[in-house]
């Protein structure tokens, strides 16, 4: 299967999948920002590291606003709405809990373990 076939379009993903993608993107951004700062410090004076950090940060911020902020699509259901929709189960109709076997009913002897 090709890489393009495995990749699902962003619009077709659920809200939960989009949030997982955002968390991965944010984690990558933070790690690379630290890398840029360390590389800038090692390479000598100059503040070039702020430019890629700020540019990439704009993309991360826009993605965050589209998932959690005012740019969020109001038609997408919140994950808690999806998880808790429907009637609650009646706990009185559940089966009896399983009983543990007695220690004497083991299919082996202690001598067999040594």
Automatic annotation (TrEMBL):
The molecule here is called 2TM domain-containing protein
Residue intervals of the 2TM domain: 15-70
Q: In its keyword annotation, does this UniProt entry include Transmembrane? A: yes
The alphabetical list of record keywords is: Membrane, Transmembrane, Transmembrane helix
For whether the record's keyword set contains Signal, the answer is no
One Pfam family for this entry, by name?
2TM
Its transmembrane ranges are 26-43
Q: Which organism is it from?
A: Neolewinella lacunae
List the biased-composition ranges (Basic and acidic residues). 72-81, 90-114
């Amino acid at each position: 299967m090709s890489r393009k076939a495995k990749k699902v379009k962003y619009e077709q993903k659920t809200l939960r999948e989009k949030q997982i993608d955002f968390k991965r993107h944010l984690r990558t951004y933070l790690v690379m920002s630290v890398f840029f700062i360390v590389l800038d410090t090692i390479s000598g004076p100059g503040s070039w590291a702020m430019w890629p950090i700020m540019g990439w940060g704009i993309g991360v911020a826009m993605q965050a606003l589209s998932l959690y902020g005012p740019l969020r699509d109001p038609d997408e259901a919140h994950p808690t709405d999806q998880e808790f929709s429907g009637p609650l189960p009646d706990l009185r109709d559940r089966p009896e809990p399983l009983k543990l076997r007695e220690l004497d009913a083991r299919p082996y002897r202690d001598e067999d373990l040594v």
